[in-house]
Amino acid sequence: MGLPYGRIGLCIAFLIASMGPAWAAEPKAAPAPSTPWENMSSVALGLLAVLAVIFLSAWLVRRLQGMQGPNNNAVKTIAVLPVGQRERIALLEVGGTQLLVGITAQSIRTLHVFDEPVVDAAGTGGNGDFASRLQAMLSKGVVNQGRGTKQKGNTE
């Protein structure tokens, strides 16, 4: 059987019970006035503590970024071409095979799987940069434009 009020009720009851003695206590006398130097030193120490926490957090983030696992080089992004405000075409290399994918806000679709590499690992192709080669392939109709797009009534 559970508690009649659940965990939230138990927490509220504990808070009320722990504050009871604070309400019943007599008010304390006002502390002695402090000098401006005491106030400034406490503010400076607080600022240094906050800065130390920020720098420690940044160091930890940089330190832990490399610990993502042994397969972080399995998929390489070779080139990305923005074609709209939220749409991109990306050339990926997975296991030696290059894939042309379309990326939208809702989905990622494979546009074409290349038999031979279009762009080498250094990022330079045989005939020019990725954008010009992609444009030439689109104009030739090499990339299957109907693949990966959903039409109304299509249950693919």
TrEMBL record:
Its main location: membrane. It holds the Pfam family FliO. The chain crosses the membrane at residues 40-61. Residues 1-24 form the signal peptide. It is found in: Cell membrane; Bacterial flagellum basal body. One of its GO terms (biological process) is bacterial-type flagellum organization. InterPro entries: Flagellar_biosynth_FliO, FliO/MopB. GO terms for cellular component: bacterial-type flagellum basal body; plasma membrane. Keywords: Bacterial flagellum, Cell membrane, Cell projection, Cilium, Flagellum, Membrane, Signal, Transmembrane, Transmembrane helix. Belongs to the FliO/MopB family. PANTHER family: FLAGELLAR PROTEIN FLIO. NCBIfam families: FliO_TIGR (TIGR03500). This is Flagellar protein.
